[in-house]
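FAQ: What does a multi-protein file look like?

Like this. Sequence, then tokens, then the next protein.
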Amino acid sequence: MGSLFYGGETFDFDDRVLSHLQIVISTKLRRRENFFLTWTQPMDRGSGRHAIWIDNGLPVHFFFNGSRQSSVNREWIEELLLSAGRPTGLQLGPEPDARGTT
């Protein structure tokens, strides 16, 4: 389980999910495209939903619990990037079939 540190808060994600978020967030910020990141909290952590505004004004820190880099599912990256461009923002959902994994 890794962590995303943003705006003085810590958000826990699976390392694989966090790897994909790092790619998408860094891509959007390099393009100077701000967006919402939204995800559902699992029942074992109290359920609910988070939404945070991501922009270049705050530092972003990704902490990975594991030392190995996760493989990347290109299809999921594309889905997440498309989602981030919508008015509702990046809606973090389940990973699609890993056909596009590299």
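And here is the next protein:
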Amino acid sequence: MSVLWVAILAGAMAIFATVCIERFGGALGGLLGSIPTTIVPASLGFLGHSASQTELSTSLAVVPIGMLINAVFLFTWRVLPPKLSPASSLYARLGMMSGASLGVWALCAGSFVGGMTYVPESLVLWVGIVGQVLLLGFGVWACWEGVPAPKGKRPVSALVLLSRGLLAGCAVGFSAWIAGLGFPILAGMSSVFPAIFLTTMVSIWLSQGEAVQAGAVGPMMLGSSSVALYALLCILTFPTLGTIGGVVGAWFGSILLVSVPAWWWLKRQTFA
């Protein structure tokens, strides 16, 4: 039942993320859509299913690397669409983009999970910290010159919103279940499977056009740093502040340290 509730909460948060992009545009919407949302129930799932503090810390420390891989996944949605044949149909282009971006994610994630088997547990936290720094730098670089970030103009059906939440909820619920089996690295990586990012890119491309989803890529990459920081902060806040206090402290800490400065900086860039 705990896994089910984690999945339901994650699905609701996924719907919120995509609606933000359509309502507020790629700049603000992309940033809001990538604040710590599904990672919150995922972190609670880790806390409830991890057998020890070491397992919990390992799962959480993997999240920044997972978000860095997600940033690469997102970036493919900016650089690859112009290279696709304009003669292809909408669904053919979308299918090729989905397959290519997921292939890049799977290759990067598989390589990382395999490589982590050679990393001592004492160094996992440092791997996460390095991932946090690289992710923040990648996001800043992606937004450095500004990108057009128009708002969506077409209404989105309740069925489409539900499908977005269902995919994200399944991914996060699966990660919580994996954590209970004693595979913290795999759990941490599966918790940040780009379910929200994929459903956001696909559904917004279909409902609003390529320009809206492309405009959200950079801000979402930058905003992902708050998700990674939330996970790292939870390593400190869970044992010191308890479950509720740990979530609240890590969430507000990540917002104040990443999301607020990022929004201030994005406002200074040239966005349409």
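Q: Is there any per-entry metadata?
A: Some entries carry free-text notes. For the entry above: Residues 2-267 form one domain.
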